[in-house]
Amino acid sequence: MHWNLDQRTEDAASAHELPIRRGNPARQFEGCLTDATTWNDRVVQPAHWPNGLLWSSPDQILTFFRDGHYTLGLAMVVSWGGMGRRSWDIYRGRSPEFIGQIEGTLQSCAQSIKASESIETSWLTLTGWKDGQLGWSAVMASKALHFLCRSLGFTQDPPAVIDNKVMRERVWPVFRDSIPRHQRPGAWGGNGFEAYSRYMTAILTWAAKRRWSTIEMESTIFDQYLNEKKPACSSA
User: Fold this and answer.
1) Where are the domains of the chain?
2) Tens digit of pLDDT for each residue in 160-193?
3) Which helix H or strand E contains 34, and what residues bound it?
């Protein structure tokens, strides 16, 4: 993918590698068993749920996105990412009209990413508050775009998931405090694409040093700095 790296962050990440205990990458969180009926008011109808057990796994998310079932894929992203408590911020009043808007928006994002090999335009579409934009947080946008890009074949350097509890509140201070004050780059907070690009610059830099994908790098960092606590899926 095309990434415009933040030079100050790249210099800092190159000189101050994040402490990682593992020699091999950690597996990405595998998701949770969930009930399709829980999500029916948040997907375009008629819903094309698979028969049998429904697991909000990365493979299931990617299958939905590849098949063009964007709101089904998004529902599984929300479950996988423990974002059910933020349901109002993602779906607003869950009206069929807004659910349809989400479906169309994610389809447009997929087309934009495929054509440009960049998420910059899609990021603004998902996080902006103008007409036709969804007003999502950076955390939600990063999770959706992570899987959307992977579904399009970007498997080495897709956008990495960012979260508050681990990446912003634990990893960022460790990285920041390892750098002399006059050399510190900008922080990773807020919903702006510039802040997210600084985060991605660090992930890309550390991943390149280990010859890992950004998926492997983020999963390993998350696994270590979560302090052995597993993330909880969302059932609603």
Assistant:
1) 7-21+160-225, 33-151
2) 999 999 999 999 999 999 999 999 999 999 999 9
3) strand 33-34
